[in-house]
Amino acid sequence: MFTILGIPGPLLFGQLLLGVINGAFYAMLSLGLAVIFGMLNIINFAHGALFMMGAFVSWMLLNYLGIGYFPSLILSPLIVGVFGLVLEKTIISRLYKLDHVYGLLLTFGLALVIEGLFRNAYGSSGMPYRIPDALQGATNLGFMFLPNYRGWVVLVAIVVCLATWAIIEKTFLGARLRAATENAPLVQAFGVDVPRLITLTYAGGIALAAFAGVLAAPIYSVNPNMGSSFINTVFAVVVIGGMGSIMGSIVTGFGLGVIEGLTKVFYPQASATVIFLVMVIVLLAMPRGLFGKAV
Description:
This protein is mainly alpha-helical. It is 70% helix and 3% strand. The chain has helices spanning 9-40, 47-65, 69-90, 100-122, 148-170, 172-182, 184-189, 194-216, 228-241, 246-266, 274-285, and strands at residues 3-4, 7-8, 138-140, 145-147. A two-stranded antiparallel ribbon has the order 1-2. Strands 3-4 form a two-stranded antiparallel ribbon. Helix 2 packs across helix 3 (69-90) and helix 9 (228-241) packs parallel to helix 11. The chain is globular, with a radius of gyration of 19 Å.
């Protein structure tokens, strides 16, 4: 068995793979948060609960309607996205002119309500979600065996993150979104339906969280607390990358996942706190984050 810096190779690469997988979820969840904050100025603390809802909707589609994993990748984000659209129209839209703390408190309350409803209905124990047959097994890379499903998660996460960045930064729709956040009355004067644009942006950010939830369902048990275990770390990722920065969320999410994975190998005691330590260091040196824009 070969070693690297005294660490068995399979152990090192296994933890590195785990870090990349966690980083994929950090990136997708922080991406949704960055889209919502960057476009709407709302700190959406309910994001973890909606990530959990995406996994649960996928589980319900499978167990109640017999709809498998791949259709759920489309249907579940759409269903949760519609739920997010209703939330924005009825509740969230009332907060746009208020201080950030009101949005934080309201969405935190929404997270507790959503998690409580699913906990009352399904309990706290996790429910398994089977990996689809097409993604069963593992591939021998020579230095390690890569589980096919985990490789699929990383690949899809990269594609979704880069596609979202391209839509926001490189398309006419993205230009409209960015302009609406800078000067909504002027954009409205040019005939753009800004309220509809804002609603669709919020629903899109929620759909990204639900999509990540479907990807997570076969890896983590589907349970009401699965979002809570991610959300604190994801907020740290968003802060480190720069609040509202799309590329910052992507790069920081994957990067911190790798750092966390390597810390579990070389200094396991610090693995639960290393991301927050990085956040403190970055905020002391660059208060706006690594990719944040100067005000």
